[in-house]
């Protein structure tokens, strides 16, 4: 990993920011599908489906219908299979709702036979409740396991809402 | 070298763990900010940051002209999931069972 100074685009200065990165052995198209397909997404995101038509300016909603709303927002930039910029409103509790709107940027960069996936969660208020962005490491780890092995990674998080609709 | 080897190698040093602690406390610090908290030359801190970056434990992003460092806990999460998820699974299953039971009671007569 050389030339690290030039690896990332300049980011703007608004709000506080977190950045997560993972290398996954797959191609960009497959990774994009795993992020945007509701059933695949649910398998590594607490059992929660994210639904949208994935056009620029469209809305997306994540949750278990009739059980809980998790997040919602707008797909600001949609550039498959490389870049997705979304506004993010956490909805699962009053505490996280109070944080208000932030921004999540997904970037997929092919590196040899793998992809580097970067998730930047920014435009967060200073001292924002860490629950809002704290789930990303768990989600990204589960995503890597699912894509590379085809296996679902069962953690308390990944099972949280699976089957909740049928309960 | 296996990715995991690099993570353990990077973590096997008290200064590098201290740098991760600093970023855990306050993410997105510049080299100057990180350097201020350590009894070490700028060059020494840079060397440690490079090892952490190569192991994927920190990422850097530019904000204007300055470079900022962010804790990337994902590789540690992967290590956690590799050996701990098996033990967490029965717990989670138990908890979801409890949740269904509580919810069915709520909607019961």
Please give a quick description of this structure.
The complex is a heterodimer of chains A (167) and B (109). Chain A is built from five helices and seven strands; from the N terminus they run E-H-H-E-E-E-E-H-E-E-H-H. Chain A is of the alpha+beta class and 167 residues long.
Describe this protein's structure.
The complex is a heterodimer of chains A (167) and B (109). With 167 residues, chain A is of the alpha+beta class. Chain A has helices spanning 28-36, 38-44, 94-97, 136-149, 156-159; strands at 16-24, 49-52, 59-64, 68-79, 83-90, 102-111, 114-124. Chain A has a 7-stranded antiparallel β-sheet. In chain A, strand 6 (102-111) and strand 7 (114-124) form a beta hairpin. Chain B is mostly helical and 109 residues long. In chain B, helix 1 (3-11) runs antiparallel to helix 4 (42-54). The longest helix of chain B is centred in the C-terminal third of the chain and has 34 residues, at 74-107. The N and C termini of chain B lie far apart (61 Å). Chains A and B meet through strand 1, helix 4 and helix 5 of A and helix 4, strand 1 and helix 5 of B.
């Amino acid at each position: 990993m050389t030339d690290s100074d030039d690896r990332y685009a300049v980011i703007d200065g608004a709000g506080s920011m977190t950045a997560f990165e993972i290398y996954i052995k797959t191609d960009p198209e497959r990774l994009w599908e795993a992020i945007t397909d509701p059933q695949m997404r649910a398998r590594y995101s607490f059992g929660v489906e994210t639904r949208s038509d994935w056009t620029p300016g469209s809305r997306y909603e994540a949750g278990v219908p009739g059980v809980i709303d998790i997040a919602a927002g707008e797909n600001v930039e949609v550039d498959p299979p490389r870049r997705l910029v979304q506004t993010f409103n956490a909805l699962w509790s009053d505490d996280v709702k109070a944080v208000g709107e932030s921004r999540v940027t997904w970037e997929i960069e092919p590196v040899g036979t793998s992809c580097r996936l970067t998730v930047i969660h920014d435009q967060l208020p200073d001292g924002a409740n860490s629950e809002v962005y704290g789930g990303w490491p768990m989600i990204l780890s589960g995503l890597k396991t699912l894509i590379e092995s085809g296996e679902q990674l069962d953690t308390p998080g990944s099972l949280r809402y699976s089957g909740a609709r049928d309960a | 070298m296996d990715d995991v080897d690099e993570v353990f190698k990077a973590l096997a040093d008290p200064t590098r763990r201290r740098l991760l602690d600093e970023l855990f406390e306050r993410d997105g610090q510049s080299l100057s900010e990180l350097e201020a908290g350590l009894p070490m030359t700028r060059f020494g801190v840079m060397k440690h940051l490079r090892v952490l970056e190569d192991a994927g434990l920190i990422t850097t992003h530019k904000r204007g002209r300055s470079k900022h460092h962010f804790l990337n806990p994902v590789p540690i999460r992967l290590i956690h999931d590799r050996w701990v998820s098996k033990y967490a699974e029965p717990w989670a299953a138990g908890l979801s069972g409890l949740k269904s039971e509580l919810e069915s009671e709520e909607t019961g007569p």
